[in-house]
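Table S2 (text version). Query chain:
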Amino acid sequence: MRKGDSDSTQPPKCILQGWLEKHRHKDESSAMRWLDKRETDLRWFRIQEAQGTDQNEYALCYYRGKDEKEAKGWIYLKDVTEIFDEIRDKDRSKGKKDVLRFTVVSPGRTIVLDTNHQDDTFRWVQA
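Corresponding structure-token output:
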């Protein structure tokens, strides 16, 4: 590569990546309500450098699979207005585990995500 050339094949810089369960919502108002029977999709998430309008910036991107090249959706981190997490205690007598959830809110959309471990939730919220 010569000086001044851009390398579009180079992967974006990634801060954090991993599998998360993403909740599906029919409308934005339902995104803020807790519904135990919501459907989820397992998605590969990355906090990565994304080409912004003025300069490179970071985005929370999600993909159908780990090896996918094109993101299915994203939120620019500069647009995030709120992130909150919660631990919901399930009925342990029936063998159900705790649900570890965090919500990412921006003006354009809200994404509700579940993790398997409290450490994972903390890592994603802090990133």
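Notes on Table S2: The longest helix spans residues 118-126. The chain has one helix and seven strands.
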